[in-house]
Design goal:
alpha+beta, cytoplasm, Ribosomal Protein S5, domain 2, Impact_N, 8 helices, 5-stranded mixed sheet, Ubiquitin Conjugating Enzyme, Impact, 7-stranded mixed sheet, stress response, repressor
């Protein structure tokens, strides 16, 4: 290991130890080997109203040569709020090139949350925060398994709240379900080339009562931007801690693009522990293989562009 590599590794160790000491229980190690961490941040009130989780991955080149890979995880963080906060964090990074910046990021986010708590902003609309104990037979929740079809689904007469009737609804496919200890997992896949298509697919999926009733609907997507030669990507935990990030990481490893994968989980009343992540990723990988999204080794080596591993909001909470 070169001296610079050793120095970077030591800088990361020092920063992690410092942050763990500063933030205590609000600091969480998601995956030590992959250097994935999460910091819970709130508005400092006795009963916090505004909270956010900052999930970061420290690449080998951080802090001197690469920025942290991050996600801003909060159910209320949307649109303009997200863009403003992301721009602030990137500005902090640019102003402190080569330095450890996670503490600066956390305290800036806390400052934003305190401002929200002190302003007239309405309280955030918080979605479900835990698994509901549901003793329904898993078979009641299964969608019909659809074999591979060449022809895409025709455009539906469906208008979203943003008048996106001109945006064609992509074909949606459902993978083969996996059931373990009464929990059922099923993946859904759709080809997407714009964020609007992602939204349309998600809205269409939620029209299905079985999917809407799922305890968690975890998703991730990757869209290759030809003009910028980067990837636009995002993921969503929907209450299953770190599941969205793991799903996105799987898609990055498999080098898939222009696709959205949603994995529904119907909780059966028995906690599965780490096995739930295995089932989520297996469902996703199976459907990607079935619909030919996983390139061969030769094709993968020719894929253009670098992943811009910085995207939006994921609701990230724990399994109860």
């Amino acid at each position: 290991m070169a001296a610079s590599d050793r120095e970077r590794a030591q800088q990361q160790i020092d920063e992690i130890e410092a942050l763990s000491s500063i933030y205590g229980e609000d600091w969480c190690v998601v995956d030590e080997d992959e250097k994935i961490y999460c910091i819970k941040i709130n508005d400092c009130l006795d009963q916090p109203k505004w909270t956010l989780c900052l999930q970061v991955i420290l690449p080998p080149g951080y802090p001197t040569a690469e920025p942290p890979i991050y996600q801003l995880n909060a159910p209320w963080l949307r649109g303009q709020d997200y863009m403003e906060l992301a721009n602030v964090l990137e500005e902090i990074y640019v102003q402190n090139l080569g330095e450890s910046i996670l503490y600066l990021w956390v305290e800036k986010i806390r400052e934003v949350l305190i401002e929200k708590a002190q302003s007239s902003d309405p309280e955030p609309d918080i979605k479900k925060t835990s698994e509901e104990v549901d003793k329904h037979d898993g078979d009641d929740f299964l969608l019909d398994y659809q074999p591979v079809q060449e022809d895409p689904i025709k455009m539906l007469n469906y208008i979203t709240s943003e008048s996106q009737e001109d945006e064609e609804l992509p074909s949606i496919h459902h993978g083969n379900p996996i059931t373990d200890r009464r929990s059922t997992f099923q993946a859904h896949l759709a080809p997407v080339v714009t964020p609007r298509q992602v939204k349309r697919v998600l809205e269409k999926l939620y029209e299905n009562k079985k999917i809407a009733s799922a305890t968690h609907n975890i998703y991730a997507y990757r869209i290759y931007c030809e003009d910028k030669q980067t990837f636009l990507q995002d993921c969503e935990d929907d209450g299953e801690t770190a599941a969205g990030g793991r799903l996105l990481h799987l898609m990055q490893i498999l080098n898939v693009h222009n696709v959205l994968v949603v994995v529904s989980r119907w909780y059966g009343g028995i906690l599965l522990g780490p096995d739930r992540f295995k089932h989520i990723n297996n469902c996703a990988r199976n459907v990607l293989v079935e619909y030919n999204y996983i390139p061969s080794v030769e094709e993968s080596s020719k894929q253009p562009g670098k992943s811009k591993k910085i995207r939006k909001d994921s609701k990230k909470r724990t399994e109860h």
